[in-house]
Amino acid sequence: MLYALHEMAYTSAQPFRLAAQLARGFWKSPLNPASETAIGRTAYASAELFESVTRRYGKPDWGLETITIDGKPVRTVEQVVWSTPWVRLVRFARNVGDLKRAKKPVAAPSVLIVAPLSGHYATLLRGTVETFLQDHDVYVADWVNARTVPVLEGRFDFHDYIDHVRMMLAQIGPRAHVVAVCQPGPPVLAAAAVMAAENDPNRPASMTFMGSPIDARLSPTVTNQLAEEKPFAWFKSNMIHTVPWPYPGFGRRVYPGFVQLYAFMSMNEQRHKDAHWDYFKNLVKGDGDGVEKHDQFYDEYLSVLDLTEEFYLQTIDIVFQSHLLPRGLLEHEGKLVDLGAVTDIGLMTVEGENDDISGVGQTQAAHILTPNIPVERRVLYVQPDVGHYGVFNGRRFREEIYPRARDFIAANEKLCAVPSQSASAA
What we know:
single chain; 15 helices; 9-stranded mixed β-sheet
C-alpha cells in the first residue's frame, strides 16, 4: 500500500511540476525583461527548487567517457561483459593509444569493484572507479533495480549474491583483485572463502574491504542498533512493500529505495534543509558553481533502487542480528563457510575514523576471522578525519587511501605471478 501511495503522490504532483517547469523557462528567458530583476531571479529559483525536489530521479550515467591519468586524457569505453537479470558486469576499457601517450602500461591488474546493494546505484562509486582506473583494468558490479525485474525471473537472496560474486570473478579470469565497498563485505568474504576451500582457480589474488560490516557487533552505530533493537518481524511488517503496476517488477515484494532514502535523510535532516536553502540562495545570486555542486550531489543521492524482500531480510538476519559469518555459523549450499580456508588471498581493510555507518573495528575484524593469511599479505588501515563516504570517495581517498590500496594490489599481483612464471619455465 505504501508503494502505491508513494506513486500516487508523485503522479498527483505532475501538473504542479509542469507548471514549475513553465515558470522556470519564463523567468529564465533572455526575452523576459524582468528575468534579471530580484523578483525574476527569486521566481526562477522557487520554480527550480520545486521542480528539483519533486522530480523522478532515474539511474545516473557513469560519465567516465574520458578520464585524466597523469595529466593526460584517456578515453574509456563502458562494456557490459556479462549479465543476469540482477547485475551487469561492466568493464571500463581504457584506450590503448591514450595509455601509451600517458606513459602507462597497457597490461594492468584486473580489479572487480563490488558496489553496495543498499539503496543507491553503483554510480555512487563513480569517483572510486575513476581513481582505480589510474592503474587498473576495472570491472564493476552494477546491480539492477529489483522493481524492473519481472516476478517470473525468480528470487534473489543473500546466497545468490555470493554466487554472483563468484560468477563475476570467473568471468574476469584467474586471480583478479576484488574491492568491496560497504555492504558487500560479508558476502564477498564468504565468496572468497568458498572459492579458496574449493581451490577455485578464479579465487581473487587479494580482497580489499572499505567500511564494511564484517562484524557488526563491534563499535555499533545508530544503524546497527536499529537493526538489533527491532525484532525481525518488525522489518518484514514495516519495511517490505509490493511493487505496483506499471513497473516490470509488478507484484514483487521489495524493500523500496525511497524508504531507505527517507531513513538516511532523517538522520541528517537539518543538513539537507540547509543544503536546499543554500541552493535556493545560490540560484537567486546566480552562483553557478554552488548550484552545480548541489545538482551533482543530489542527482546521485536522490537516485535509488529497490532490493528484493529476501535479500534485504536475510541481510538483516545474517549480518546485523545473528552475525553468522563472524560466529562461524554461516552456511552456503549446505556447507559451513570456512574462513580458515583462505590462505593465499591478500587482505586489506580500510576504515574511516568518523564512520557513522560501519564503526571502527567492524571491517578490520576480517583479519581476526582469517587467521591463515600470511602477515606479509595483510594491510590494516584507519583513515583519520573521514566519515563513511570519505573511505571510498573524495580528496583523502584519492591522496591517502588509494595509494595504499594500489600498492597492496601491486604487491599481491606479483606474489600471484611468481608460481605461474615458475610453471611456465618448468
